[in-house]
Design goal:
U2_snRNP_Complex_Component, PSP proline-rich domain-containing protein
């Protein structure tokens, strides 16, 4: 007795289109309908109350064959595959066996540019289910209303209703008599509230668009049926439309800065030059200071140099020595191999040093501190008091002879060879001991 009826529940809620006949048996029907009315709410699948299994009614239906997508079928691969299959059907058993053992490649030859365009230019996404959408029996046979618009007649519908080209739909005469459909008040219908297409004519003859709906004063009842409003908008009739610019965009900051700089330059050009005897006020009175404007900070008689060389200048580089060579070949000469690190070939650098070439390591001129080919002698300051000039010269010659004598590395080489031989024997003994380990 307390249960609401379906009509009462639809009258109490805000969205009666979501109400179902089973909602009245809920504990709180209003709360249930309010939950179902929320946005992005996924409804319960409609087959929850069915007695038979899900998709049981599709048993025995022939499943349609798979079709290639349109962008792949446009490449022509399907026709080439069909031609290859027809050729294989006409082969004998021996040819099929040979083809199975030794297959031939490259039977289907497709232009790679077509394949590239098919997958990277004309590829389309497959039809996917939307949010909260579920499949049910017979869904693929339903009309997709999202792709249909009221007032647009498809070619299939025109063919089914036998409507010739430039002919109105059969319900236009009734709409002109009773008015536009109340469910679509803003729908533009040619012959009712919109002009008829070009080439069509009014009248009740076959292919005629009936009689335009007018009132007693000859004015259209439902809209601009002659397209006069469009002509007024385009300026063909009535008052002309003023198309002058009524505003401008603000200039960018860069353009305004450039304009300010150009204005400042023009003002400087127009500004008169100051007299040499003093500054003058606008009234023409001469100032008592008598200072003249200084136009330059460079002392008189000096020109501004065009090029400044900031590199350090060395002494004696004022004279141009001519072009310098990139490299110089050093002559070789044979030599006896001496010592541990001796070499059979040496380079003669004496000619380069005499010819003014690059300095040789150890023979360069380092000023007054050290001379090329000099001899280092260590002397105590206390010993210089009792030495004469002859004794100093004798010590200098003795040190020079000692420095020019070549050292003998034979003992050093012998020690190194013996050390290496001893290390090798030791390693050999260790390897033999490791072999006999268990």
């Amino acid at each position: 007795m307390n249960r609401l009826s379906v009509a009462e529940l639809k009258r109490l809620v805000k969205k009666p289109e979501v109400v179902e006949w089973v909602d009245v048996s809920a504990t709180d029907p209003k709360l249930l309908v309010q939950i179902k009315s929320h946005r992005n709410t996924i409804p319960i699948p409609p087959h929850w109350s069915q007695k038979r299994d899900y998709l049981q009614g599709k048993r025995g239906m022939e499943k349609p064959a798979f079709q290639l997508p349109g962008f792949i079928a446009d490449t022509g691969i399907a026709t080439q595959r069909d031609a290859v299959k027809e050729k294989e059907e006409g082969q004998s058993l021996k040819q099929k066996t040979r083809e199975r053992v030794q297959p031939k490649m490259g039977k289907i030859d497709i232009d790679y540019q077509k394949l590239h365009d098919a997958f990277f230019k004309f590829q389309t996404k497959p039809k996917m289910t939307e949010y909260g959408e579920i499949y049910y029996e017979g869904k693929e046979f339903e009309t997709k209303l999202k792709e249909k618009k009221p007032g647009d007649l498809s070619e299939e519908l025109k063919e089914a209703l036998s409507i010739p080209p430039l002919a109105p739909p059969p319900w236009l005469i009734s709409q002109q008599r009773y008015g536009p459909p109340p469910s679509y008040p803003n729908l533009r219908i040619p012959g009712l509230n919109a002009p008829i297409p070009e080439g069509a004519a009014w009248g009740f003859h076959p292919g005629g668009w009936g009689k335009p709906p007018l009132d007693d004063f000859g004015r259209p009842l439902y809209g601009d049926i002659y397209g006069v409003a469009n002509k007024f908008n385009e300026g063909e009739a009535g008052e002309p439309i003023d198309k002058n610019v009524w505003g401008e965009l603000e200039p960018d900051e860069d353009e305004s800065e450039e304009e300010e700089e150009s204005d400042e330059e023009e003002e400087e050009e127009e500004r008169p030059a100051a007299p040499a005897d003093g500054l003058q006020t606008p009234s023409g009175l001469e100032t008592p200071s008598g200072f003249a404007s200084v136009t330059s900070t460079v002392p008189g008689g000096l020109d501004t140099p065009a090029f400044l060389d900031l590199r350090k200048q060395r002494e004696g580089t004022d004279v141009d020595e001519g072009p310098k060579s990139l490299y110089q070949v050093i002559p070789e000469r044979e030599n006896r191999m001496r010592g541990l690190m001796g070499s059979e070939r040496v380079y003669d650098v004496s000619g380069i040093q005499n010819a003014g070439g690059p300095p040789v390591l150890g023979q360069e001129d380092r000023g007054t501190k050290r001379k090329a080919g000099g001899v280092d002698i260590a002397l105590d300051a206390a010993e210089l008091e009792g030495l004469s000039e002859a004794d100093l010269r004798m010590r200098y010659e003795e040190a020079g002879r000692r420095g020019t004598q070549t050292e003998d590395f034979s003992d050093f080489v012998g020690k190194e060879v013996a050390k290496r031989r001893k290390t090798a024997e030791k390693k050999k003994d260790n390897k033999e001991k490791e072999k006999f380990k268990f």
